[in-house]
Amino acid sequence: MTVSPDQIPAVRKALRATFATETLDGATPLSGGLSGARLWRIRVGGIAYLLRLETERDAVRDPRRAYRCMSLAAQACLAPRVRYADADDGVAITEFVEARSLTLDYPGGRADLVVELAQAVRALHAIEAFPSLTDYLDALGALVDRAARSGTASAEALAGPLTAWARLRAICANLAPQPVASHNDLNPRNLLYDGRRIWLIDWETAFLADRYVDLSALANIFAPDPDSEALLLATYFGREARPDERARLYLFRQVSHIFHAAAFLVGLAGQARAEHLDGPALDVLHQGLALGEPLLETPRGRLDYALARLRTATANIESPAFAQAARTAR
Description:
This protein is of the alpha+beta class and 330 residues long. The protein folds into 2 domains: 5-95, 2-Layer Sandwich (Phosphorylase Kinase, domain 1), CATH 3.30.200.20; 110-329, Aminoglycoside phosphotransferase (APH), C-terminal lobe (Aminoglycoside 3'-phosphotransferase, Chain: A, domain 2, Alpha-Beta Complex), CATH 3.90.1200.10. It has helices spanning 8-19, 63-75, 110-125, 136-149, 155-173, 211-222, 226-237, 243-267, 282-290, 299-317, 320-329, and strands spanning 26-30, 38-44, 47-53, 82-86, 91-95, 179-182, 191-193, 198-200, 207-210. The longest helix is centred in the C-terminal third of the chain and has 25 residues, at 243-267. The protein starts with 7 loop residues before the first helix and ends with a helix. The relative contact order is 0.12.
């Protein structure tokens, strides 16, 4: 296992504290996704664990807050059990979940998956003591500004989306806040299915935020049609959703599109560039991802995905349905 010299003492301390030994049966590096963390699947005494090392810290990526959220979620049986977490060192060891495909291996249909996800988020939002960080829309606004300055997309390509975002932000900022213990990044890579149940992972962006941040992230991926959206909300609330609740979800679905687009654009700085918004449709990309196609493994694929999210949000915000949702949500 290759670890930077400055992190070797912290890793040794973590192994001794957790297993009373520094000897590993094996260590396999894993992809850390977009978080920047370094991950290994380690084996100690024949049992697999996940070793996570934080490599970057900023206003959002703070292990002290992230490990607190992760530990609370694990205590609620929503995240894998935490065996060790030292925020000062940026080292955590958790139970390892052998992931299986939600598309190929999940035993139920789309409705069963929507119900399980809604139940998991309802349990997450019931957790108390998640730390606060900042206003979610303010944080997203800063991310959008970074995306606009990143050079990944031309000013001409971003003109329409930025105007749409300003309108969306103003409307959502006037809604009464509904803060809960929020994961804030429930994309498919942060949902692990082990053959029996779904686990939530990667808590670096978790903090107290509006309940519709998580709900909209799930809706955009797993509940794209009205029936599955209604099932998601009915399961979450334990009753049929009111018109204002459906409208608020519609608004935050656009917030979620903007978040994912901005995050990818920032991450692609210096790797890819778009002069216009053209590209594959979002539903086509989601279908490919569901089938296991490596669409997000290349800069071009990630750029196509960001642009598809931007096109979708912009078109929705400019539609009559958005104006109606804005009136109903208030």
